[in-house]
Design a protein that fits this description.
Layout lengths: L1 H13 L4 E4 L2 H6 L3 E4 L26 H14 L4 E5 L1 H14 L3 E5 L15 H22 L1 E7 L6 H9 L4 E3 L6 H12 L6 E6 L7 H11 L4 E6 L11 H19 L5 E6 L2 E6 H6 L6 H11 L1
Parallel strand pairs: 3-4, 4-9, 5-7, 5-8, 6-7
Antiparallel strand pairs: 1-2, 9-10
Helix pairs in contact: 1-9, 5-6
The structure holds 6-O-phosphono-beta-D-fructofuranose.
Length: 307
């Protein structure tokens, strides 16, 4: 997100637009936590994870009174448009705010889940996949040395993008994602056939999988194969931090600069994205509403290369 903030501020300087940084997102807007920014305030941040502006899940912004207060603050500062970085909650907030007070917004997709339409990738997703892949590689050493079966849980509340991509990159034999059913039966069948050929296994579970979390899936597996040494690793928030990948920095820089240009050109209520390497704009409602499915070809590929 820092690379995106940097690009927004620098693009504003380029177009001679005054820019303010709102701390802690919509909550900061309500609490008037707003500061004037310039090019130098975003020096030396492109390599940092997280966000220098900080973030918050704002319950107050879900109330009309909260949004009214936020609007009052914006008027006082003379702010005429918003660039919001975030996921479906952020886009929904910006959309409602526009409907009620007519303030234009452009959204930049910032979520590791990659579950927003209108862009091939969201900011943070590439870094998260690489972090998960590194962790899988490390866990593989123990799995191999001890002949263990590992269930590794990755993030993805409602989506399996991280699980599918990190799973393929990490050579996982089975992947559990909310978009597909019956993975458990599949891996049980597969494991039965392979048991004598191979002694350790790695399975990836998206936290939002309908079969349950990694612990419950591992327990079911262990009941069927009591002789296996079954372990669980939950990667958790390490996937949401750390040095951003080159791809994420470049994506975030493109999105931030194009968001500024779009607002200047009079676009509103839209999310900027990159599709097939071209800048794309999608209405907020479509970016949130059109569920981005996982790539079917990758799902099928994994079945071929792991059996
Ligand atoms: O929305 C992105 C996400 O990374 C989900 O995959 C995960 O479940 C959630 O955030 C964790 O959010 P929090 O840090 O608020 O618990």
């Amino acid at each position: 997100m820092n690379a995106c903030i940097r690009a927004v501020i620098r693009a504003c300087a380029h177009y001679n637009v005054t820019i303010y940084g709102i701390h802690r997102g919509f909550q900061g807007l309500i609490e008037n936590d707003i500061r004037l920014m310039d090019s130098s305030s975003v020096a030396n941040i492109i390599q940092l994870g997280g966000t220098i502006l900080k973030t918050a899940r704002s319950k107050d912004f879900m109330t009309f009174e909260g949004r009214q207060l936020a609007h009052k603050n914006l008027i006082q500062w003379g702010i005429e448009g918003l660039i919001c970085i975030g996921g479906d909650g952020t886009y929904t907030g910006a959309m409602v705010f526009e409907q009620e007070f007519g303030l234009p917004s452009i959204g930049c997709p910032g979520t590791i889940d990659n579950d927003l339409s209108g862009t091939d990738s969201t900011i943070g997703y590439d870094t998260a996949i690489n972090t998960a892949m590194d962790a899988i590689d490390k866990i593989r050493d123990t799995a191999d040395a001890h002949n263990r079966v590992f269930f590794i849980e990755v993030m993805g509340r409602h989506s399996g993008h991280i699980a599918l991509h990190a799973g393929i990159a990490g050579g996982a034999e089975g992947i559990f994602i909310p978009e597909r059913k019956d993975e458990f039966e599949d891996i049980v069948k597969m494991y039965k056939k392979k048991m004598r050929k191979k002694e350790f296994s790695i399975f990836i579970v998206a936290e939002g999988d309908e079969e349950g979390y990694a612990y419950s899936i591992a327990k079911r597996f262990q009941n069927i194969y009591p002789e296996t040494d079954c372990k669980v690793a939950v990667l958790g928030h390490i996937q949401r931090g750390g040095k951003p990948s080159a791809n994420d920095r470049i994506l975030a820089s493109r999105l931030g600069a194009h968001a500024v240009k779009a607002l200047i050109d009079g676009k509103r209520n839209m999310a900027v994205g990159v599709i097939n390497n071209h800048i794309n704009f999608a209405e907020f409602k479509d970016a949130i509403g059109n569920k981005k499915d996982i790539e079917e070809n990758l799902w099928n590929l994994n079945t071929i290369i792991t059996r």
